[in-house]
Amino acid sequence: MSSVLFDTPGPRTRARHRIYTIVSAVVLAGLLAWFVWYLAEQGEFAYELWEPFVTPAYVEALWQGLLDTLAMAVLAILFAVVAGFLFGVGKLSEHRMLRWPSWLVVEFFRAVPLLLLIIFLRFGPLALGPYWSVVVGLMLYNGAVLAEITRAGVLAVPRGQVEAAYALGMRKTQVMVTIQLPQAVKIMIPAIISQCIVALKDTSLGFYVLAPGLTTVGRSIWIEFGNQLQTAIVLAAIYIVCNLILTALATWAQRRLVGERKQIVINPDLVSGRSV
Question: What is the DSSP letter of 2?
Answer without folding.
Answer: B
